[in-house]
Each structure stands twice: as structure tokens, then as C-alpha cells.
Write a sequence for this structure.
């Protein structure tokens, strides 16, 4: 009963806080290239969770030297974890009566600074949005949904597209930005 209320209040607080802060402009390409700790929040629905697991090796290829932390709903199992990935499961017991993450789960997730946050849910997911807010990552990437204003890079696509199309668009943007940056750096050398 108190969970939705607590989460709504926290989201309102985040919105108010962001309105009082001056605009924060970031170089997306630079952030993608320099990210050392990346947090991937897998989709909470079973079909999306399963599809996203198959894409983890692609994230590892793109971010070869970064530490990848994979956050996933404990209701689902996770398999085929790429090298150098840290996996953290969360369930309802990791949230307090107000629906906010408990300190212990926050400490395990944010044991070091997060540079880049990916919310891989195609639809609103309160837990993923909460983790995005708590992450304090300079670059927070997510798909367009009801909570997309909490992200500073939002990927829009035609609904009703499937998971394959969603990840294709995501990788197109991320790789496109990185490739252009590498091309510019190579020309400057």
C-alpha cells in the first residue's frame, strides 16, 4: 500500500531537484568512450529478460575494458554471463515498506562510481527508474516510456516493435556515436 506512494514521492523529489539545478550538458560520445563502470538493468518481463541476456556479449564487445554490473529481477535466472561481469539480483525483499531500495542493496550495487546506466526495459519499471536515480551516472540511457524524463538519452522506436528491433536501435545509436568519435580521433592523430 505504501510502496506506490513512497516511490511517487521519491520520483517527485527527483523531478523538483532536477528543476532547481542548472542544465547539465554532457558529451555523450565522450561519456560512452570513457565509461569505466556500467550498470545494465535487465528487463523485468521474462521475454525481455531472456532476450537481453543474449545481448550481454554485445555489451561486453562494445565496452571491452569497462566493469559491467548486471542488475536483474531475482524472479528470473541468468545464464551465459560474459567475462568480467558482476551480477546482482534484486527482489521485493530488497525494498522497504515505501518501495525504496534498502541501504544494503544500494551499497552492493553502488560500491563504486557508476559512469553509465542502461535501463533495458521497454516499458516503465519503477525499480529500474529508482536505480537510475540512485546511480548518479552522468549518462543514463533508456527507452521511451512514462519515466523516460529520468534519463538523459532516450531511445524512441515505433511501437509495437519487438525486443530484437529495440536492441538493434540501441546498438545502432551507441555504436554509431562511438564509431564517429573514433573516426574523429583517428583524423586528429
Amino acid at each position: 500500500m505504501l510502496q506506490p506512494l513512497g516511490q511517487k514521492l521519491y520520483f517527485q523529489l527527483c523531478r523538483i531537484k532536477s528543476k532547481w539545478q542548472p542544465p547539465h550538458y554532457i558529451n555523450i560520445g565522450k561519456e560512452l568512450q570513457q565509461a569505466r563502470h556500467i550498470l545494465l538493468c535487465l528487463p523485468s518481463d521474462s521475454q525481455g529478460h531472456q532476450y537481453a541476456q543474449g545481448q550481454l556479449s554485445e555489451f561486453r564487445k562494445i565496452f571491452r575494458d569497462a566493469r559491467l554490473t548486471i542488475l536483474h529481477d531475482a524472479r528470473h535466472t541468468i545464464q551465459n554471463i560474459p567475462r568480467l561481469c558482476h551480477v546482482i539480483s534484486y527482489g521485493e525483499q530488497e525494498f522497504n515498506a515505501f518501495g525504496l531500495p534498502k541501504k544494503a542493496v544500494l551499497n552492493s550495487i553502488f560500491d563504486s562510481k557508476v559512469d553509465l546506466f542502461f535501463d533495458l526495459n521497454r516499458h516503465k519499471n519503477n525499480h529500474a527508474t529508482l536505480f537510475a536515480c540512485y546511480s548518479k551516472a552522468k549518462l543514463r540511457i533508456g527507452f521511451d516510456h512514462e519515466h523516460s524524463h529520468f534519463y538523459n538519452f532516450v531511445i524512441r522506436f515505433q511501437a509495437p516493435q519487438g525486443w530484437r528491433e529495440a536492441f538493434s536501435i540501441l546498438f545502432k545509436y551507441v555504436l554509431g556515436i562511438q564509431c564517429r568519435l573514433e573516426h574523429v580521433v583517428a583524423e586528429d592523430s
Remarks:
- The longest helix spans residues 163-188.
- Residues 133 and 150 are 7 Å apart (CA to CA).
- The radius of gyration is 16 Å.
